[in-house]
Amino acid sequence: MNTSRAGDIVKKQEFYKRLEKEILVFDGAMGTMLQQSGLKTGECPEAFNLNREEAIYQIHRQYVEAGCKIIQTNTFGANRIKLSLYGLADQVAPINQKGAAIARMAAGEDCLVAGDIGPIGKLMAPLGPLSYEEAYHAFYEQALALIQGGVDLINIETMSDIQEAKIAVIAAKDAGDVPVICTMTFQKDMRTLTGTDPETAATILEALDVAVLGANCSFGPDLMIDILDRMNKVTSKPLIVQPNAGLPKLVNGETLFDLSPEAMSAYSKALVAAGVNIIGGCCGTTPLHMQAIAKSLAGETPTSREPIAFSKLSSGTKTVLIHETLPYNLIGECINLTGKKHLMEAVQNDNFHVIAKEAKSQVKAGAQIIDVNMGIRDGMISEEMAMLNAIMAVQRAVDAPLSIDTVNFEVMEAALKIYRGKPLLNSTSGEDASLDKVIALAKRYGAALLGLTLDQQGIPDTAEKRFQIAEKIVTRALAAGIPREDIFIDTLTLTAGAQQKWVPDTLKALRKVKTELGVRTILGVSNISHGLPNRRDLTATYLAMALEAGLDIPIINPYEEKIWAVLHSADVLTGRDQNAQEYIQWAAKKEAKDGIMHIQSAEKENLLETIKRGERERVSDLIEMMKQQGLSAMDIIQGQVVKALEEVGEGYEKQTYFLPQLLMAAEAAQKAFSCLKDDLEQESYEKTGTYLIATVKGDIHDIGKNIVSIMLQNHGFRVVDLGKDVPAEIIIQKAIAEKPDIIGLSALMTTTMQEMKVVVEELRSKGLNIPVMVGGAVVTKAYAASIGAEYAEDAVEAVKIAKEIISK
User: Fold this and answer.
1) Where is coiled-coil annotated (predicted)?
2) 51-89: per-residue pLDDT in tens?
3) Which of 73, 622, 639, 726 is 20–30 Å from 6 (CA)?
4) What is the percentage of the chain residues whose pLDDT exceeds 90?
5) Mind giving me the DSSP string for 702-755?
6) Which CATH number fits the domain that encloses residue 482?
7) pLDDT confidence of 696, banded at 50, 70, 90?
8) What is the DSSP string of 390-433?
């Protein structure tokens, strides 16, 4: 169901026109204002829409009178899953519709209303319990209610997981034809919680065709400038920023932010210079902040921005740029079950770590993009299940973007639902049924598409006929709103051994596609030498010819050294590799034997490396083998499991590992502890210590707390997890009963951060001198020190500090 009103199209057009001509000022924090209006700790903020309508109306009016041109509804957490924590799951429609109505009443004539949608508060599978379907339905239900309530826009904000953001955008666009804004929240390392950098976030959200994209919350405007500048370099989409009013501090029992309205507004013009079209405020901002920003921007117009000509593919954490001025990229072809017995057996036996290992080897060999083909014709294995398992395994193992290689539309869509980045859909033909379906999938899920120059008649025997099919594919894709940069054409390489006379036609068609249609080109280059001797020389020569004809990306075996010789040489000779820097590095590093590269990163088969790779399914077999070799459970834990977790933790700090890999490694370690449980009891294994952990009263967020719990357990701590929204008196009672070595407290909101101080004071008043560690998005080291607690920025640091405390 797509809910649209007659006035929506006019409003939408007006919004886009205003983005071109003026800097729009968004409103500031709602939570800060609700606190001042009497919001109590633990109370549902969104319920104010039903029982404190006047308070919400007055907050909106203050922002309108401050000069804001967009105000957002009081519905940040008004999805079914979050509302269920307050017993309000059946009030999704009333709360959102009323929120929209109040904002509409307050907005007046010149102010737009954005329906506010925040994250659900659970990690997406496989990192957590939230499935695609559950997330989609929650977001769709909320967006539909907001649109029915009369909002002009949907604002999806404070997203820390790009996969959840993707689902929210898809659901919102399904709910109605209104512009969708989406912003991510970043950490100090300039990545989201799950490892997405600004360029990749922009790439993925742009592909979903959001109206505006950007960043919010995170920190103050000073650090936001760099994030928006990085986004600006890869997208032409309008940008939005909603920074906090600096950092939170506790002053006389009240949480205050350290940037005054004047200090915050001083950054406005620098943000505009970074490409921003909309400036709002997040935590700690008030109508006074927004008024100062509005005044500082009076008469300002958006910075002129050049269209971005790059083509882009991405994983959830890395973006690959494709352009005539950049070195050639290569798509690794080796994850294909045809003729590969070891891969077929691995899939049949559900050993997808073998697929992941192949992906890692190809990336190590130099492949920038990995093709995943699970086409199985024996009827014994579900291609859909094989593809899903392969995609999950590969995107867990490597950060390279993927090419989803299938002609089965159901398989293609299932894979798109779980893929975290912007993939290449490989492929569609020129046949109408195929073309329409694949274009629709690419448009819906934010993918690039590869068109093959064949149709129901097969592969044409002339270059002109193949070009005609390519032209049809490009015309149809452009008409559907697929950007030219996201269209790739394959003019089909045929084997020189069997179809020699057609070889020139492939290159003629490719050249014509490149020069006349201006899209990207791809060829499965290795096909040329199939069935012929000395394949390496023939393939390398054909690759050189194809590059000269306009080939952008070969799909090819990355282990062939001669292929890299051609690509790196071509980069130098065409000016893609400035000063031959990459060529020189490659020449210095290459090691060849009989023309085939050595892959120095051959995966080790020990438990330590298996845990680091997060291969949970292999742990029990390796442990059994180690026990048969005479190793004790303690030897295995200390020598392999703990060491693996320490190395992953170090990688996390150095940004070579991100949250998905951290959690997968933790799961594998948990499996190891489970397998060794009985042995450890017999060996009188002592826990490192006891850690009592809770999210404080009034705070229903527990993602960070849960991650800390998992990591501590895997480092030998007995963790007593009290859950979320835990009153101070319960924490004290459990502290007396459990006698923990450390107490950990988590808070995500400024409104609940003060509860940490309450807990510490209660502990000390009872004579309990147990060390307290605090953390959470709004918590700072200075705040922790002010209440007499240790501060941990993330789960890895929490483990490190906990061990230091225990060792004293």
Assistant:
1) none
2) 999 999 999 999 999 999 999 999 999 999 999 999 999
3) 73
4) 78
5) -HHHHHHHHHHHHTTEEEEE--SSB-HHHHHHHHHHH--SEEEEE--SHHHHHH
6) 3.20.20.20
7) very high
8) HHHHHHHH--S-EEEE-S-HHHHHHHHHH--SB-EEEEE-SSHH
For the chain, the maximum distance between any two Cα atoms, rounded to a whole number of angstroms, is 90
**Structure tokens belonging to residue 590:** 């290459």
Q: At 327, is the pLDDT very low, low, confident or very high (cuts 50, 70, 90)? A: very high
Residue showing tokens 């270059």? 463
Residue 111 annotated in ligand binding = no
Find out whether the peptide bond into 126 is cis, omega within 30 degrees of 0: yes
Question: How are strands ordered across the β-sheet holding 112-117?
Answer: 24-25, 276-279, 239-243, 212-217, 180-184, 153-159, 112-117, 70-72
Domain boundary among 272, 296, 320: 296
Residues 380 and 472 in one domain: yes
Query: What is the pLDDT confidence band of residue 777, given thresholds at 50, 70 and 90?
Result: confident
Within-domain flag for 576: no
Q: What is the CA radius of gyration of the chain?
A: 28
428 — pLDDT class (breaks 50, 70, 90): very high
Same domain, residue pair 290 and 348: no
End-to-end, the C-alpha distance of the chain in Å comes to: 61
- Tell me the two tokens of residue 713: 């357990």
Phi/psi of residue 527, each to 5°? -60, -25
* Distance in angstroms (rounded) separating the CA atoms of residues 427 and 404: 8
Instruction: Judge if 376 and 459 occupy the same domain.
Output: yes
Contacting residues for 500 by C-beta, under 8 A, at least 6 apart: none
**Pairing outcome for strands 276-279 and 689-695:** unpaired
Is 217 labeled as ligand-binding? Answer: yes
182 is known to lie in a ligand binding site? no
| Angle, CA 379 vertex, CA 376 and CA 383 arms, to 5° | 45
Q: CB-based contacts of 621: which residues, under 8 Å, 6+ apart?
A: none
What are the φ/ψ torsions at residue 350 (nearest 5 degrees)?
Answer: 60, 30
Containing H/E element for 283? none
Whether residue 73 is contained in a domain is answered as: yes
Model pLDDT for residues 474-531, shown as the tens digit of each residue: 999 999 999 999 999 999 999 998 889 889 999 999 999 999 999 999 999 999 999 9
Query: What's the domain range around 708?
Result: 608-807
* 594: three-class secondary structure by DSSP: coil
Output the six-digit token pair for 621: 């077999």
- What pLDDT sits at residue 6? 47
Q: Domain tally for the chain? A: 3
* b/e code 8-24 from CB counts within 10 Å (16+ = b): beebbeebeebbeebbb
- The answer to the question of residue 304 being in a domain is no
Share of the chain above pLDDT 70, in %: 96
- Domain identity same for 286 and 347: no
Name the helix (H) or strand (E) containing 238: none
SS3 (DSSP) at 259: coil
Decide: pTM greater than 0.85.
yes
Residue 98 covered by a domain: yes
Helices (H), 259-319: 261-265, 268-273, 287-296
CA distance 120 to 163: 12
- Asked whether residue 647 falls in the same domain as residue 791, the answer is yes
Q: How far is CA 443 from CA 416, 425, 446, 757, in A?
A: 11, 11, 5, 49
HSE of 556, CA atoms in CB hemisphere, 13 A: 36
Residue 45 tokens read as 């903020």
CATH code, 681: 3.40.50.280
336-362 burial, b if ≥16 CB within 10 A, otherwise e?
bbeeeeebeebbeeebbbbbbbbbbbb
- Tell whether 256 and 375 lie within a shared domain: no
Say if residue 130 is in the same domain as residue 257: yes
Judge if 277 and 339 occupy the same domain: no
The enclosing domain of 32 has a CATH number of 3.20.20.330
